[in-house]
Amino acid sequence: xxxxxxxxxxxxxxxxxxxxxxxxxxxxxxxxxxxxxxxxxxxxxxxxxxxxxxxxxxxxxxxxxxxxxxxxxxxxxxxxxxxxxxxxxxxxxxxxxxxxxxxxxxxxxxxxxxxxxxxxxxxxxxxxxxxxxxxxxxxxxxxxxxxxxxxxxxxxxxxxxxxxxxxxxxxxxxxxxxxxxxxxxx
Amino acid sequence: xxxxxxxxxxxxxxxxxxxxxxxxxxxxxxxxxxxxxxxxxxxxxxxxxxxxxxxxxxxxxxxxxxxxxxxxxxxxxxxxxxxxxxxxxxxxxxxxxxxxxxxxxxxxxxxxxxxxxxxxxxxxxxxxxxxxxxxxxxxxxxxxxxxxxxxxxxxxxxxxxxxxxxxxxxxxxxxxxxxxxxxxxxxxxxxxxxxxxxxxxxxxxxxxxxxxxxxxxxxxxxxxxxxxxxxxxxxxxxxxxxxxxxxxxxxxxxxxxxxxxxxxxxxxxxxxxxxxxxxx
Lengths: 186, 280
Fold this sequence. Notes:
The complex is a heterodimer.
Chain A: E1 4-9, H1 13-18, E2 24-33, H2 36-47, E3 60-62, H3 90-95, E4 100-103, H4 109-118, E5 121-124, H5 130-134, E6 137-144, E7 153-167, H6 174-182
Parallel strand pairs in A: 1-2, 2-3, 3-4, 4-5
Antiparallel strand pairs in A: 2-7, 5-7, 6-7
Chain B: E1 2-5, H1 6-22, H2 26-38, H3 42-61, E2 71-79, E3 82-85, H4 89-103, E4 127-133, E5 138-145, H5 147-150, E6 154-158, H6 163-178, E7 186-194, H7 196-206, H8 218-232, E8 247-257, E9 262-269, E10 276-279
Parallel strand pairs in B: 1-3, 2-4, 7-8
Antiparallel strand pairs in B: 2-5, 5-10, 6-9, 7-9
Helix pairs in contact in B: 1-4, 2-3, 6-8
């Protein structure tokens, strides 16, 4: 495994340019959680010309709905959910400045097109490693839609959050390349 | 008749909800460890190591293995010589779910209506599969089912002429097309026969079998092995990022079938293949 690249969030264009598929990264800084219901609300706000609960430019969104934190912990298990369900919403968010997405599973062509056009990156976190990932989330505040419970938008402070660059800003896709590399007789 | 208090069944549900979500089974852990030698992709190896480390943290701290603590699927085998006392069984099951998910700090993922989408707040109701069996015991098996892998499942009403090759192709294609979505390495349950709903149930029930255990009928044991081999030749790999270990195992369950039909179903679980049981 290649060496880990330490990066900070929010993300800059300079950093994004250096990230290539297969890179192992450790993300430190601030990210925001949002999944199905929150994405619908964010897109409705943008389409209605309204302000979002957080400034989008440069930010990374983590597709996650954590379990409740045990007393003394910042968060419960907090692994990624399936990103494909956010495909309908992500292009508009990318167009409005979203630079990073963290989730699991492949993305649609329209998401990849938007990523290439606006210079965004998609990180794969390990689905099924929610307890391990929770150790890299140091502080969590619900900043919008508390009524959505696990689906509320949370501001998360992270330290060395482990992820792999799955689709980079040039449009290279590790889901396609990795499968080709290891497939037998396909 | 032996009397069993429904509260005891509710307590079993509460305890199993917590243990199945936080503790990866010993057999599963050992099985996954072996995959470190099978996997060739460095990224894939790294992911498998992370899943093992994750299981260790979850077990020690009783934090869920995965944030998706699932729909509570309960298989209840009720001995016909048992007389249930102490109230409504369905209330007792729901109460067990509520206590388990609240006291165990598990995520509440259930909506009261599929279209209006309002969270019930306590992960109720469960999905109950009840069967009446001989004897005076009650066996509670609980299998929390995550949405990501469940969404990749399917039923296909094949033609009898499609035969076993048709079933194999359907299952292999379905799992490969799922790619990284169901968090590979996955465990695959296959239902063959019965009716439309029965074969889906069989696929789910097949997921309860221990990793590495083959079907008692050598014909289906071979089918399981072939499907597993073909899935792992796909190159999908851990998390869909490329590699040799896409599935840990494949289990087949069958049932008698109508002369006109060949219902087939596939249900997918992640590596944890969470389930546990208690006999009362």
